[in-house]
């Protein structure tokens, strides 16, 4: 018997569909509608993603009732659950992140197969969680490394805003964000009291360390210099971070290639991470957080039952989908692969904590 997955039926007129397909790299929306749970709503829709736009099974961004949803084909992930499992893990460790749900996607009556519906990070995201937001920025490429220099180069960036896209806030908010990056890089030495005081004033360090631990434990190598959102909390005026695009995790990279459980070092990457971990008190707190997660949340006992549930729910539909990149046998072995990753990663991180 097939698992009950929600169905999202996209309806796009002929001319609008031609416009959408004419240039897969265009970020322009076209008009359409979506039928979901017996209700039809007008939508705006466009393709989303980077290299995945060239794939035979593409992903979509949909604006419905003012809210943004992403429908990811998860084409590179043979399990189709790595993104969803990662976001569930972030919830457990106290980092707000998007809600996800596997669904069946249809386009003008054609079955596109299993997709992952992901809640967009927008005004509604914060409103739903009772979070007051001043500004929001997406880290859209690997220039978003909190440094004055691009990765692997000695030439300064033309703008400290390079790598980011502003989603909420004013030009003044943008200036404040670039000032944060500038002061991080110029306010005394990396371990100065003045710099630590500034970071304590402008950064939610607990949130950042939890996010860092999540990226390190799940093994998201691409999650430090891009694939995150950063917002300024209105009341505290501190920056907080939100994870995004976590399919390259749990033992596979963003193209689905198996990678070692030691791919991501326990101290992570980017300028802000390096600076924070030079302060003994911050480093000690991070070490305690990681140790607690190894004891409570980053365990086979906690994670694998959830992975099994997700995997079993989509299995009947995945095995019938001939348009997928990966074989059914590859899909069938994914929960075992994730389990092996967790076991190996736990040992590696536990060993690294002794020297942290």
Provide an overview of this structure.
This protein has 356 residues and is an alpha+beta fold. The protein has 2 domains: 7-119, no CATH class; 133-296, no CATH class. It is built from 11 helices and 11 strands. The chain has helices spanning 14-22, 82-92, 123-128, 171-186, 193-202, 205-218, 271-276, 280-296, 300-318, 328-332, 334-353, and strands at residues 7-11, 30-36, 39-48, 59-64, 67-72, 100-107, 110-119, 133-139, 164-168, 228-233, 239-243. It has a 7-stranded mixed β-barrel with strand order 1-2-3-4-5-7-6. Strands 9-8-10-11 form a 4-stranded antiparallel sheet. A hairpin with a 2-residue loop joins strand 6 (100-107) and strand 7. Helix 8 runs antiparallel to helix 11 (334-353). The longest helix has 20 residues, at 334-353. Pfam families: CotH. Keywords: Capsid protein, Virion. InterPro entries: Spore_coat_CotH_CotH2/3/7. It comes from Paenibacillus tyrfis.
Reading the helices and strands in chain order gives EHEEEEHEEHEEHHHEEHHHHH
Number of domains: 2
Strand order of the largest sheet: 1-2-3-4-5-7-6
Shape: globular
Unreliable parts: none
- Total helical elements: 11
What is the helical fraction, as a range of percent?
A: 25-40%
Structural class by SSE content: alpha+beta
Number of strands: 11
Indicate the proportion of strand residues: 15-25%
User: Could you state the oligomeric state of the chains shown?
Assistant: single chain
Q: Strand count, sense and closure of the main sheet? A: 7 strands, mixed, barrel
Averaged pLDDT: 95
Rg of Cα set: 21 Å
How many angstroms separate the termini?
50 Å
